[in-house]
Amino acid sequence: MRSEPRKASSATPAPPEQSLAVTLRRAAEMIALAVVIAWAWHGTGFELSRLGGSLAPLAEFLGRMTPPDLSALDVAMRSTAETLQIAVLGTFLAVVLSIPPALLAAVNLTPAWIHQPVRWTLALLRGIPLLLLALMFVAALGLGPVPGVLAIAVHSVGMLAKFYADAFESARQGPIEALDSAGANWLQRIRYGVLPQVAPDLARDTLFRFELNLRESLILGLVGAGGIGFYIQLYIRSFRYTRVATLTLVILVIVVLVEQGSVAIRRRLR
Questions:
Q1: Which of 247, 232, 236, 249 is nearest to 61 (CA)?
Q2: Each residue of 214-231: pLDDT tens digit?
Q3: Domains of the chain, with CATH numbers?
């Protein structure tokens, strides 16, 4: 019996010139990455030999924090509650402030002369350090949680508005075009054609930003913007490390609980 002829492979091999160009490009990318890492390694003075000598001072520092001083538990709970309040209110204000620029920054909802300047403004806003914003609001409003809330809100707008705009752009055009043909105005297109499609994405982005805001609000106390960071700084300056340990343990518990709650909510949104 004659054997069946083999079918020719459907994949055509790339020309040698193209294959060589791809190989050279990848090699150049790897070399560039290695150069950047070497530059960062040298510039920071990073030496593995120094890590071994740091273990003893690190162990000594941790030894000063044991056992935790449970008499600071009341302060830890009150200041942690204030930190949560800063993160919750700051995130809420950020959501409210992010929706209008997000709609204006969406490529499929506005012309280029509108969405391009808005995107540039959001990029500039993301570049402002959180601590700088906190210092500005502390200078304007004084010490306390209010400057922390405003710093969190303003700092979050740059990221949330970008995430929201990306979600708006991912909406399917079919429902929007159907509303256009029915004579819907711009706001009706967004309310009935865009938001129902992207609502789960907006919720996930908001939860992610809330987790980040909670972590960032922990350091706002370093500049007098309220929260548990203020007491951590106070106790460190007075060398009361056992109280610092108590506050740190409370922070870890709160962060883990918030993260687990956020994960559970995101699973329900899938």
A1: 236
A2: 888 888 877 777 778 788
A3: 68-269 (1.10.3720.10)
